[in-house]
Amino acid sequence: MDLINLKNVEKKYKNGVTAIYDLSISLKKGSFTFVIGGSGSGKSTLIKMLYREEKPTKGQINVGGLNVAKLRNKKVYKLRRKLGIVFQDYRLLPKQTVYENVAFAMEVIGAKKDVIRKKVLRALEEVGLKNKIHNYPDQLSGGEQQRVAIARAIVNDPKLLLCDEPTGNLDPERSMEIMKVLEDINKSRGTTIIMATHDKDIVNRMKKQVITLKDGHLVEFKKKGVYNEIV
Ligand code: ADP
């Protein structure tokens, strides 16, 4: 079963730049996909269209049965509830503890306190941070902060986890720790993961499927892909 379907998707920004040309791809439930390409190749634009931060100018996008491009603004929450997002710069609340940062994602959807506690602790355990629940973000390393962001992204049990350069600010060792966490989540929860990256080592080590973009065009979509030097 496919979780995601794109058909003839084009994104042209108002300034005339076409960031994605005629892209058609399907991604299965439970798959782990890298989106690679040089700076400006359209990786972020593709991710943004999947969570409806941007709308395509042509084509169709289906995520978990939702017609994303046509979704009314007041229905976007239905899409957002199906997914979690992780950014390069963590985006944690600086004055909230690790626990509070993750719990916040559940409070906003009105979950009960005891359910919140159970799920927050489980998510923090999965990312290996159960011993730091009372710390503040500035008391954590970059890798730890990103793991909090991942816990926050998965705490509501999304079907899809979108990651935009999640290791972009981390050294190779910390980056591999993040990859281990993402791989565990993919395997144990069956969460579909899409990760934009330009980290060659990571892509070559993980042996996942790879979408290669160049100047907005799909150049390759390969199972067990490697970093395509064309980018
Ligand atoms: P990547 O994530 O691979 O670096 P992006 O998707 O950010 O690529 O950008 C693809 C192209 O679209 C680039 O030429 C970029 O300048 C352009 N672009 C991205 N966002 C916008 C925007 N909001 N308005 C206009 N052009 C944009």
Task: Annotate the secondary structure layout.
Layout: E1 2-12, E2 18-28, E3 32-36, H1 43-50, E4 58-63, E5 66-67, H2 76-80, E6 83-86, H3 98-107, H4 113-126, H5 142-154, E7 160-164, H6 172-189, E8 192-197, H7 200-206, E9 209-214, E10 217-222
Parallel strand pairs: 3-8, 3-9, 6-7, 7-8
Antiparallel strand pairs: 1-2, 1-4, 4-5, 9-10
Helix pairs in contact: 3-4, 3-5, 4-5, 5-6
What does this structure look like?
With 231 residues, the chain is an alpha/beta fold. It folds into two domains: 1-82 and 158-231, 3-Layer(aba) Sandwich (Rossmann fold), CATH 3.40.50.300; 92-157, no CATH class. It contains seven helices and ten strands. The chain has helices at 43-50, 76-80, 98-107, 113-126, 142-154, 172-189, 200-206; strands spanning 2-12, 18-28, 32-36, 58-63, 66-67, 83-86, 160-164, 192-197, 209-214, 217-222. The strands form two sheets. Strands 6-7-8-3-9-10 form a six-stranded mixed beta sheet, sandwiched between helices. Strands 2-1-4-5 form a four-stranded antiparallel beta sheet, with helices on one face. A hairpin with a 5-residue loop joins strand 1 (2-12) and strand 2. The longest helix is centred in the last third of the chain and has 18 residues, at 172-189. Adenosine-5'-diphosphate binds next to helix 1.
